[in-house]
Amino acid sequence: MTTATTVTSTPAAGAPKPTTMAAALNRALRDAMTEDPAVHVLGEDVGTLGGVFRVTDGLAAEFGDQRCLDTPLAEAGILGAAVGMAMYGLRPVVEMQFDAFAYPAFEQVVSHVAKMRNRTAGRLPLPLTIRIPYGGGIGGVEHHSDSSEIYYMATPGLHVVTPATVADAYGLLRAAIASDDPVVLMEPKRLYWSKADWSPESPGTVEPIGRAVVRRPGRSATLLTYGPSLPVCLEAAEAAVAEGWDLEVVDLRSLVPFDDETVAASVRRTGRAVVVHEAQGFAGPGGEIAARVTERCFHHLEAPVLRVTGFDIPFPPPMLERHHLPGVDRILDAVARLQWEAER
Amino acid sequence: MTTATTVTSTPAAGAPKPTTMAAALNRALRDAMTEDPAVHVLGEDVGTLGGVFRVTDGLAAEFGDQRCLDTPLAEAGILGAAVGMAMYGLRPVVEMQFDAFAYPAFEQVVSHVAKMRNRTAGRLPLPLTIRIPYGGGIGGVEHHSDSSEIYYMATPGLHVVTPATVADAYGLLRAAIASDDPVVLMEPKRLYWSKADWSPESPGTVEPIGRAVVRRPGRSATLLTYGPSLPVCLEAAEAAVAEGWDLEVVDLRSLVPFDDETVAASVRRTGRAVVVHEAQGFAGPGGEIAARVTERCFHHLEAPVLRVTGFDIPFPPPMLERHHLPGVDRILDAVARLQWEAER
Amino acid sequence: MTVVEHQGQRDAPRPAPPPHWRPRTDPAPLLPDAEPYRLLGVAAAPAKPGARRTKAAPKKSPAAAADPALLRRLYAELVRGRRYNAQATALTRQGRLAVYPSTTGQEAAEIAAALVLQDQDWLFPSYRDTLAVVARGVDPLETLTLLRGDQHTGYDPHATRVAPLSTPLATHLPHAVGLAHAARLRGDDVVALAMCGDGGTSEGDFHEALNFAAVWQAPVVFLVQNNGYAISVPLDKQTAAPSLAHKAVGYGMPGRLVDGNDVLALHEVLGEALQRARTGGGPTLVEAVTYRLDAHTNADDATRYREAEEVEAWRAHDPVRLLERELLALGILDEEAIDAERERAEEFAAGLRARLNADAETHPEELFAHVYATPTPHLAEQAEQLRAEREAEAEGAAHDEERESGR
Amino acid sequence: MTVVEHQGQRDAPRPAPPPHWRPRTDPAPLLPDAEPYRLLGVAAAPAKPGARRTKAAPKKSPAAAADPALLRRLYAELVRGRRYNAQATALTRQGRLAVYPSTTGQEAAEIAAALVLQDQDWLFPSYRDTLAVVARGVDPLETLTLLRGDQHTGYDPHATRVAPLSTPLATHLPHAVGLAHAARLRGDDVVALAMCGDGGTSEGDFHEALNFAAVWQAPVVFLVQNNGYAISVPLDKQTAAPSLAHKAVGYGMPGRLVDGNDVLALHEVLGEALQRARTGGGPTLVEAVTYRLDAHTNADDATRYREAEEVEAWRAHDPVRLLERELLALGILDEEAIDAERERAEEFAAGLRARLNADAETHPEELFAHVYATPTPHLAEQAEQLRAEREAEAEGAAHDEERESGR
Ligand SMILES: Cc1ncc(C[n+]2csc(CCOP(=O)(O)OP(=O)(O)O)c2C)c(N)n1
Ligand SMILES: Cc1ncc(C[n+]2csc(CCOP(=O)(O)OP(=O)(O)O)c2C)c(N)n1
Ligand SMILES: [Mg+2]
Ligand SMILES: [Mg+2]
Fold it and tell me: Could you tell me what percent of chain A has a pLDDT over 70?
């Protein structure tokens, strides 16, 4: 098996080239599989087809159909089998085809994947990565656009990370595969085809799990966000300039562990914060984030931490999703409610 | 079939008698089944055995083994069948044997139960009750003590309620069965054998879903809690008197919908709040509760809303659970951290 | 540790089995035929290559014994179904449907399923089965809202006795069991027909549904369309079973293996199964061996995982042509009648096209209306927020327009 | 809508099936025996009541052909297993175990499972299978931590090749498949033996595990102990299948139906299945028909759901007595040897009792140690909080004591 694969969008090592997030993820899998024969990819349609989002494109051709394995159509079976493979020392990378189609595997996630190390006092760690394409913005029919990250965040024993940039997609997936703990990688579907100049040698390409990053420094208030909402927040921050606000934008990247340090430092600096995500607001990630920011920065806060999120409804049909998803205007409305009067 | 059943612990109508929560739940099922032939109970061991906690004791004898049906051992199948029964106009009440054993049905909960009304623009409502014994404190082996309420709270389309008293157990279960929406009733296992003087005619026995209640008025700070943690909070409030704190204790009862009014009124009055629950802290119910209280009461708060919760770990083995579960001391420690210096 | 050699006790005299043990049912009648059951082209078809030609083969087709009105109806629906598939796929290219999973090549199963049901029966379709829903008589526009993107379920499940199209695979099968069970408890003459694909049979919910159905003897029929692929995954990566119909034995229900392109055989087998269910005989699993001639959906590229020759082989076994040839031979159809059906199908397609070419109406304000029976206070606030936002947006747009025209 | 009458085409000459269709495997060899396979008591046992006595019945027991050392070993383990069950149950009454799910009456399957494995093979037990784990050689104290309540899994899964006892039913079966598959990929001679109950076969994960195993031809053997009940639910509310072993056909693997109280038959059948798996022949489903003589656990009241006569009938088919009688008849055992085994079992029980009567050591500070490879900063804070709390508690206690003694 030679390396002449069909992955044309992946750049060869070397100079940065325009690269999609899907291609960077593909490259991360390829590099990890090359470096470590224990890395196995499995899931529905990941082999011959290369995945419905083509993230596993070419891997079966390059590494054989056992290293990149098309499974029967059964999510609990896939994840359960991956648990067994990890018990035997492999490093399985499971692809769930869409957010909502990971639910049949929920028992495996909560009662086995998250707990195995703990149940065995550290003797049976599970170096296992679960890749879950998530979120809206691609006009998917029902059950294809859920933001399900909270279910995983609320389950001790899992790491939960989500890239918002091409470089982080590569870096977080490499870090996930390298981790000796199970990692849930939430992949923002609507950023799969977003592009950046990147090569695997680009600086900052592999970050440790657990660090947030300031994407745009600012002084007026902090937008705390991740994944699919990062570009929206950056756009909002640009728009806010005209209104006289200099917004800082923090990309959380790692939801578990949570980078309290970076986040609290930012909010202490700005005194105001808005959490932005696509998931529903009630009992969504923003509740935890707002609560912990408030616990840590109470005396620095000029206003309560606000949340701009999806509504507390099932994800709407494609033609209506734009009303549901947090957009620039909704973010700026929230910023406007950060009690600026107090300031003046 | 006569009413001479084996349910000896359930009082006859009339004068309040010492009654366990399990007996009140049993009585609620019996009354609902008597009043409405559409009410069907199904689950594992609910028939002949009367449920592992005896909540369905005597129902099969009284109403026949179709109205109280022992199913095959498959949670997704049980809940999925109940969905179909509800589609046809029945009012199924499903028993999940333990918290963690509801996870195999998670796909049915999230993608079908919670969404069916919405998916069909109101044409296919699901009047369905899911009873889930939850929480620790009974010395259960692993997978028998999870506090899984956050998974349901984070799923729009479900109501989530949890009783802490004998009267509420009856009232909330009756209200759940009467509801035209799916209701998840989280039953605190360790309160099943708690007793109170009660009869089905006791005042306040049937409350509408969605109302919190002040269980103990106080002026110094508010403890926001529910289910298994209510008795602990009441005990803490008594102990706090000696330290000079007059704590108000609010029993949330309904996690979805959330009673912002009662909660915010209390916290505005006291200016300080601690959320107490067994579930893990990170991304647990307390995050949402703290965040929304802060949003609504920011200028009344003397201190950030604090949380006393289970640790962010898988539920420990029986001999260690006391270290994990929020106890009186841990609650008082949190109260002590509510920045009383500001006061004096 | 020593392993004892096989003692050959299969042939030894049997002692009494353990107390209370007994086989629950006789497995023999549950086993499916060794080859897919067929009625169309049976007399005419050449024997299997290599096999000796049976001299005794009767010359009369079994179709000759069927009701000609039924045969004509089946044909008309097949022709219309084929046209419907083509039209819907075309509409995806024009952006009028977000996505379309076609049943071109699978029309026989879709049509047989729809036509075999009585009015009071319920259909539980998967996302691929819009044709069955339309053939059942549901307005195609209401059927297609899911794929158009304006609503989730566009029809009224109670009015049509059609459950919502299920996107999560096989997880709707337990619903069919529960509904059928409830109907039987109520004493109603209702059978549920639940559809899924070969891939769907691997899901845990498939297993749980079939087991519940068999234990409860619920009046439900499971129709698995084995179209050879689950997206890109071929059947041999999905199962090692002799056939999918063989799974029935493990639940204690009859399994039937049918040529899924033979609409008459399917109609008969499903009819028998429904009749058995209706009369208290419990559930049946029917495997229809068929083929998806189009890609998984318009968004899929099937050339990545299958060869053109395979597709061509199946084209030669086309369900519409199969019936057409038979009916021509039997003199039930002639060229004129065929043209007339095609004409009617064209009209149907034109109507569909016209209606889908009009912009869909959407109702953002209804996003909050059907989450609960009554919106929670919390949702009422959010509805108000969206209303205000949309008003501001509209004002902003009007303002911009004014400015534009003012310039 | 008309339903076509059955055309009787099952007997008509078969046309070519649809393109590319072929049965995946021949179902016939997959089907289990019609009655549970037995070796013990076969020659001696009286014929089924009502059945004619076969004259030709050979007088020599199949057990006579087995390795006497194996037979003695099996017997010793059965006796010890029975004593273990009694001792563990007694310890729940003294509060030394939180709960104990007994395998009294099921010792044959537990022992056969443990003894048939090679050292490098893996065992995947359910929560009921502590006896199999102990018989495999794992320290009983380490095996029982889950039920004692001091730790979850007390043994080292890698050192013992025993997966954690699985409380969530059947959800550990896919793990066995994955591990077996991984071992085969690595070229290792490792088979996984996964155990569950009759109730567990209803779970979706059972289905998914068996299907994956068959498609991957993974070296795994599934042993279902059909003990007649899932807590209170009898088998006929669990399945309508001819036997649980019949489920194998639907996955394309062999199914074997065995008398679960016949330790020799089980050892042979499991041995064959393991051997097949080891040599690339793929998975097998084995149903052991047995009975749980005790309640579900010490906390259960079995009189609520079953009659004493049923229990008594099974007592007469006791797995220990069954082998004992056979070995006495064959002269492999005598009363003295039996007494010696019982003595050894008593010693074992005494040791267990003594060790469990000592208070368990617990390590609250380790609650945070194994959530992740390295505790997150967040968990480190919580560990510190607990440490401080416990220190304060200890100080408080010391203080109280001082005051007490000061008075
Ligand atoms: C639970 C679940 N997992 C995964 C998917 C994604 N998915 C959609 S269709 C499909 C293949 C279905 O194959 P099959 O059941 O054979 O039906 P067909 O598409 O051939 O009609 C997959 C994997 C899904 N819809 N639901
Ligand atoms: C997923 C899951 N659902 C429910 C339970 C609760 N439960 C524990 S044992 C049991 C019965 C198991 O019956 P069976 O599989 O026949 O095994 P046996 O107890 O007879 O060995 C049940 C329902 C569980 N442990 N896991
Ligand atoms: Mg298919
Ligand atoms: Mg059992």
Answer: 95
Rounded to 10°, the helix D319-330/D263-278 angle is 100
Dmax over CA atoms of chain C, in Å, equals: 103
**Distance, CA C199 to ligand 3 centroid (Å)?**
5
Which uninterrupted H or E stretch holds D195?
A: strand D192-197
Q: Are D295 and D301 in contact (CB under 8 A)?
A: yes
- pLDDT confidence of residue D43: 64
pLDDT of res. C16: 58
Complex prediction ipTM: 0.95
Instruction: Summarize pLDDT for C212-244 with one digit per residue, the tens.
Output: 999 999 999 999 999 999 999 999 999 999 999
Q: Would you put residue A3 in left (φ > 0), alpha (ψ -120 to 50) or beta?
A: alpha
- List chains adjacent to chain C, taking adjacency as at least 3 C-beta pairs closer than 8 Å: A, B, D
The C-alpha atoms of residue C30 and residue C375 are separated, in whole angstroms, by: 50
* Known catalytic residue at D181: no
Residue indicated by tokens 């990170």: B282
Give residues with Cβ within 8 angstroms of C358, minimum separation 6: none
| Amino acid code (one letter) for D345 | A
> Which positions ≥6 away from B277 have C-beta within 8 Å?
B147, B225, B226, B227, B229, B284, B285, B286, B309, B310, B326
- Quick check: D375 and A118 in contact, CB under 8 A? no
**What is the spatial distance between Cα D265 and Cα A12, in angstroms, rounded to a whole number?**
61
Tens of pLDDT, residue by residue over C63-105, are 999 999 999 999 999 999 999 999 999 999 999 999 999 999 9
Six-digit token string for C245: 């119909």
Asked if A91 reaches chain D (Cβ–Cβ under 8 Å), the answer is no
From the list D164, D171, D371, which residue is nearest A120 (CB)? D164
- Measured in angstroms, the CA of D267 and the nearest CA of chain A are apart by 25
* Mode of pairing for the β-strands spanning B159-161 and B17-20: unpaired
Dist CA A145 CA A117 (whole Å): 31
Banded pLDDT at B142 (limits 50, 70, 90):
very high
Tell me whether A193 touches chain C (CB under 8 Å): no
Cα–Cα distance, D288 to C345 (Å, whole number): 58
Residue A208 pLDDT: 82
Helix, strand, or coil (residue C319): helix
User: pLDDT-based confidence at D26, cuts 50/70/90?
Assistant: confident
Tally of CA atoms within 13 A in the half-sphere of B52 that contains its CB: 21
Contact A312 C378 (CB under 8 A): yes
Would the CB of C172 count as within 6 Å of ligand 1? no
**Helix, strand or coil for residue D398?**
helix
- Whether C152 has its CB under 8 Å from any CB of chain A: the answer is yes
Which residue is closest to B107 within chain A, CA to CA?
A: A103
Output the six-digit token pair for B109: 């909960």
pLDDT in tens, C136-179: 999 999 999 999 999 999 999 999 999 999 999 999 999 999 99
The crossing angle, in degrees rounded to 10, of helices C377-406 and A328-336 is 110
Whose tokens are 């103990």? That residue is B216
d(CA C391, CA C365) in angstroms, rounded, equals 12
Record the tokens describing residue D154, joined without a space.
């007390």
Of D72, D73, D305, D355, catalytic:
D305
pTM confidence score: 0.95
Nearest CA to ligand 1 atom 25: C168
Distances (CA, A) of C406 to B220, C392, C398, C400: 62, 20, 12, 10
Closest CA–CA distance from residue A251 to any residue of chain C (Å):
26
- Indicate whether D44 pLDDT > 90: no
Q: Do C98 and A52 touch (CB under 8 A)?
A: no
- Kindly compute the dihedral angle of the four CA atoms of residues D363, D369, D370, D376, in this order, to the nearest 10 degrees: 150
- pLDDT tens profile D74-91: 999 999 999 999 999 999
Q: How far apart are CA C114 and CA C274, in angstroms?
A: 12
